[in-house]
Protein 1
Amino acid sequence: MADIKSPSGILTAEGLVKRFGEVTAVNELSLDIRKGEILALLGPNGAGKTVTISMLCGLLKPDKGHIIFNGKALDQKTRRIIGLCPQSIVIWPKQTCREQLIFMGEMHNMSDKECRQRAEDLMEAFHLTEKSHKLAATLSGGMQRRLNLALALMHNPKLLVLDEPEAGLDPQSRVLVREYVRQWVGPAERTVILTTHNMDEADRMADRVAIIDHGSLLVLDTPDILKRNIGEGDVLEMELNVNSELAQKACQALKSIVNTISVQNNSLIIRARRTIELLPAIIQKVKEIGITPGDINLRGNTLEDVFIALTGRRLRE
């Protein structure tokens, strides 16, 4: 990938390198993260995601390269307006929900009035109000996860980093978190960096997706563009209702316009990129040899298909 030449976003990373002994965890990584977007940072285990977000938050210093946040070099002062919700739940088990939210606000120099109001707003938003006086240790895992996110949001950061935010949440809680984050970004144009292994989550939430592997950036674009251009493509199943000889003839006729085609149970199984754009030509070809197509089913290329095409099927430690 080309280096970023003209920083334009809220956070720009240029040529980041981080080594641990002989292992290069991040290798010449450049990102330009836009104001007001949700960026999903995806990669297999060991790809360098955690090290990357640690550098972007100022928790790790890169061996090479630099980070510009909100127009300034990332330092102790500027990183205070970044919120981090780690994958591991980090709460104070012997404090109540309200106490630790207020404590977090105090650490960010918020006034007592601001702390109390913000704590009440967040507990209401994440359905924790009824548990406000309960010790965090007594909460369910899903409630602790929601409290973890509320703590990251307490000081109303300009940039929020979410590391697997939906892990351990039930479907209702996932929807709640997803909708809140989207609303939080909203008109104020706040920014979110999201890491996840859930491709559906990334597809639903992200404006753009960055996929990294072996510490290097492979692609960065919108989910729709990635799904249109990378991977084996959409899967189209077309019923033919003809004998096998005529079905094979249709198969041969279509080989010039699609990637992969086969006949299964008297249906054509077609795989190609941008299949929906090819559908009129596919139907025309079939009709030219005297076949009237039956039912047609289409499964679109997914973000998981894109991810596997770029990073392979090999299991990672």
Note: The first strand starts at residue 11 and ends at 20.
Protein 2
Amino acid sequence: MNIVCVSHLRWEFVLQRPQHLLSRAARDGRVLYVEEPICDAAEPHLACRNAGDVTIAVPRLPADLSFEEETAWQARLIEEAVRQHLTGPYVLWFYTPMAVAFTRGLTPGAIVYDCMDELSGFAGAPPQLGGFEQQLFQLADVVFAGGQSLYEAKRHQHSRVMAFPSSVDVAHFARARTAVARPAEQERIPAPRIGYYGVIDERLDYALLRGLASTRPDWHFVLVGPTAKIDPAALPRAANLHYLGPQHYDALPGYLAGWDVAMLPFAHNDATRFISPTKTPEYLAAGRAVVSTSIRDVVRPYGQQGLVRIADTVDGFVAAIQASLAEDPISRQRAADAFLSHLSWDGTWRQMRQVIGQVMSDRSVGIARTRTAS
């Protein structure tokens, strides 16, 4: 199965849902991953490179193009890329509805919208996004929703919406329970360490972080990840708040191994209303106790099953961390392992592939019947 994916995410920014799924898809066929343009070129062209078995294509455009000119060049370049890199039928896979504008000339065997976030709620969302998403609902053969709350929000907008919540590579993160190498920069930070990794952006509750650091100066709060869409200078600062910057996916188990508790300090805002944090099962696979704010897709099912402690205030979060530090982790780890035994990115991709295969088969039958009738 060949795939042309159009995405708003840079392949090499943070390893998340698109990389997990499409790197597995590339075992079955060719995958062309088209990123958003970079406007720095004298002449429009497509810059391609390989990331494992996936071909990454980046439109490089002049900086002074209008929206219409930029869209026309993207359409021309993606059609050229498909001709050069793929033979035979392919699936057109959307992460951003904005790509509807420049993919109309393509002729895929199926159209998939993998809706991993409510992008309209994010800072800097284009005003045209909502309109393009409605068009994408009309075009798509199937919509995959990246979490239960997102599924509930989208299920009435398309006849075939399916929930595929965040999954996990258990073996990768379980390395945190073994004698994995621990990063020296973190080992110099005193314990207890309460950690978070992920993008540091408008989704985090900075008032909560500031309050935690102030209330418990004897605890150390470690944040691992790149900043985006916020001014790093505006981040809360304290002697026990440590920002360690972006780290490679392969290094994350080493950081997790040095944490006493893992945290999900998300704010309640438009950007977090429908999120399903991939790091929740990853933290659990690492054997960490987890404390989170009451994000719906964390409360259901992780909070309800006693796998994650939920708190929204500074005092509540402190109490939850204290309980986590004092607990005997064995029973919680057993319960978490039983829950995670049913989750894997391999399994998620197999299920998605089956659905897409059926869609393509149904399309072929429909086309054949149309030709017969004519």
Note: Confidence is low (pLDDT under 50) at residues 368-374.
Protein 3
Amino acid sequence: MLIDGTQLDLARNILSRTGYELIAATPDVWEFKAGSDELTRITDHYKARPQRCVELHFATSGPPAHMLFRDSRLERRTRHSWGGVTFPALTPADQFIAQALHIFKHLCTACTRLSWLLEYQHHVAVRDQDQAFWQEVREHAGNDAHASIAIGLATLLSFRIFGGNAPAQLAEWTSARLPAGVKLWADHYGREAILADFPGTKLYLLLQEELRGNDESWKQTKRSKLMPLRLAPRIVSVSTDDNVWKRVRSELFQLRFLLFRLRFHVVEGLHYLIEAARWKRRLAALPSYQPNLIVD
């Protein structure tokens, strides 16, 4: 849910009064959850569950101040009807850009769902001949380097995996103009990163380094991603009122989760170190290579 950043506290109070609790926060997203804290069995993963989740997305000025302000997309909002209910929504062009940014955000993490790429490719295919739509997308993306790279990378990878060709009016300013290092990552690691089984790989660190540069700040971040020193967050909440069996079971779940995450960090950390050496050689072989820096 996209909200006016200046009304963030009001939205939080409304959610709190309806039983939602803030469980995670980043500079531009707050995540709230409500309902049962019982773990869901894998066989019940796609069944209706008592757990509910709300994400509040809002605009900030970025570091260091992170000042809240009203997102310009709210000024362009439209009305959408579904199931007899009318509600405010982003314009179709802004929805498309947001979809690409969402995929790009996950490409810069360990795991990206293949279904997101399929949905994106279908979205592009449906609008294939809609030249006015693609022009509006380009205008709304403006000079935002994140948006053009996000659209370009999502377009390139989705069509490579599922086949077909992207509209020329979209590709010419996105996938066709990807920075050389980003294109190289897509060529060598994009498919592997997307098709990897959960919890994914650490190959995204090569992409992030290409986007952020190899300064001291990124080196510290990379070290923490390769082998985190903090314990994994708890996956089940318990209280002193819970019976002994529930508390013991929650600790067993937590221990299993810790071992699962430890194996991931060790195995994929070694995988990353091997590929990082190859990556440097591949970058060095690029003619007139210049790193593309997008500082978060």
Note: The chain is about 50% helix and 10% strand.
